[in-house]
Amino acid sequence: MNSKLGNILLDTSKTLDFVSKEEVQAYAVEAKAHLEALYQKTGKGSDFLGWVKLPTSITFEELKDIQQTAARFKKDCEVVVVIGIGGSYLGAKAVIDALSDNFVQLKERKNPLVVFAGQNISEDYMTELRSMLHGRNWGIVVISKSGTTTEPAIAFRILKTDLEKKYSKEGASQRIVAITDASKGALRTLATREGYKTYVIPDDVGGRYSVLTPVGLLPIAIAGFELGALVKGAADMEKLTAPEVPFQENPAAIYAATRNALLRSGKDIEIMVNYNPKLHYFAEWWKQLYGESEGKDGKGIFPASVDFTSDLHSMGQYIQEGRRALFETVLSIAQPNNKMVIDTDEANLDGLNFLAGKRMDEVNKMAELGTIIAHVDGGVPNIRIELPLLNEYYLGQLIYFYEIACGISGYLLGVNPFDQPGVEAYKKNMFALLEKPGFENETKAIKARL
Ligand code: PA5
Asked: Would you put residue 195 in left (φ > 0), alpha (ψ -120 to 50) or beta?
């Protein structure tokens, strides 16, 4: 089953040895009903559907305002620290990494280096970040929808103090932008008190669906990438996956149906595969989107990821011959942004002259094709998504494609794809162990178990 997505191609033909066209087609009516429920806000989690029509409703003025704020950072900062975790981190990280030079940190740059904090509580990470910032001009974008998440709050407490020491309280407040709830949470209170420039994360957009709000857009603009093209790609995909598009032509519905049919056939792990390390964090974003949306009520396809060809020398063995519960989705880039041909070597001691004159990408593509065939032969169904180029426009398409497909797929599974109740369990234990006021009973109970 092939379906053109604008210029992105979805190919599910290599799943057909495992699930029939009829088994996928059997989801058509249900998938369409779920897509309509997303638009009409009649399904589970209907308070969190503000992202569904977001791409086509972002205004020119909103983008301009974000670009102006980014321009201020570009003028004043060599480094911008984006503080956030989960959905307040991964979208920006995914897009910036996908579009950046692999060695951006070591090369001359027109735009500030965007680095991240608050996505871990590692003392080493924070110490090393602070020493890197020392002596440089820098600023902060702090992002938390709830405004109360521990990891970014700790990072912000530390870095805000450093920034104030360097530039004075007043100077620091000009170098901090907060992105948070319109009225609730500690970050909103702090931002109001300190007079920071702020952006609002809409109430009805959950963290992992927020990359096309200022949460993702401001860091992406600071790193120097084109917001207009990113949003246009997403808006075009919004139209290509709208409820009026028939099932057979709707790539998001087909992807959602195919993965649910595969799950029913016993394939309960989906591995996102890339052949370009720039996509590593795109897979991290996707894992959060699908893992947090679908993994509940004892259900869900487990989202995993690998970077090929590196991981063909590690996870490749398992994928080829391990437990047969896997399917793969390959993200392939048709044309790399650079061109490089392999040279002839007179001595040919490595025996590689048969590759002379070929592009390195041709070798990469044959590795991809050879691997797909080997894995399908080994019992791993394959879905392939091809982007013509790795640029803002196609990333915008891909982001919206995965978001809307996730909504449909979650509903097909019978879960609420827009909540994350399971995330609270570790927080409760951590606060109890740290003896947070108000957690006295939990502290007593957990300490008795140690
Ligand atoms: O997708 C989600 O809702 C979560 O991953 C949140 O983004 C994450 O927990 C961070 O939350 P907050 O933005 O409230 O700090």
From this structure: left
- Identify whether residues 60 and 150 lie together within a single domain: yes
Find the mean pLDDT for residues 293-316: 97
Burial (CB count <10 Å: 0-12, 13-18, 19+), residue 441? exposed
Ligand 1 centroid, distance to 188 Cα (angstroms): 15
- In the residue annotation, 296 being an active-site residue is answered as no
| Gap between the Cα atoms of 257 and 263, Å rounded | 10
Q: Is the distance from the beta carbon of residue 145 to the nearest atom of ligand 1 less than 6 Å?
A: yes
Pocket test for ligand 1, best of 83, 85, 90 (most atoms within 8 A of CB): 85
Q: List the alpha helices (DSSP H) in 178-250.
A: 186-194, 214-222, 227-240
Helix/strand/coil percentages in the chain, nearest 5: 55, 15, 35
Inside any domain, residue 242: yes
Same domain, 96 and 220: yes
Q: Is residue 198 part of a domain?
A: yes
Domain assignment present for 378: yes
Structural domain that includes position 224: 54-228
Residue 238 neighbours by CB distance under 10 Å:
21
Provide the CATH number for the domain around residue 392. 3.40.50.10490
Q: Is the CB of 207 under 6 A from ligand 1?
A: yes
What is the rounded average pLDDT for all residues in the chain?
96
Spatial distance between the Cα atoms of 218 and 236, rounded to a whole number of angstroms: 21
Ligand 1 contact, 160 CB (< 6 A): no
Written as one string, the DSSP assignment of 120-171 is ---HHHHHHHHHHHTTS-EEEEEEESSS--HHHHHHHHHHHHHHHHHHHHHH
Q: Is 169 a catalytic residue?
A: no
Tokens of 238: 């919004």
pLDDT of residue 6: 61
- Model confidence at 7: pLDDT above 90: no
Same domain, 376 and 305: yes
In a domain, 345, yes or no: no
Q: Give the pair of three-digit tokens for residue 192.
A: 């109001």
Q: How far does the chain reach from its first CA to its final CA, in angstroms?
A: 54
Bridge partners, residue 272, by sequence: 305, 329
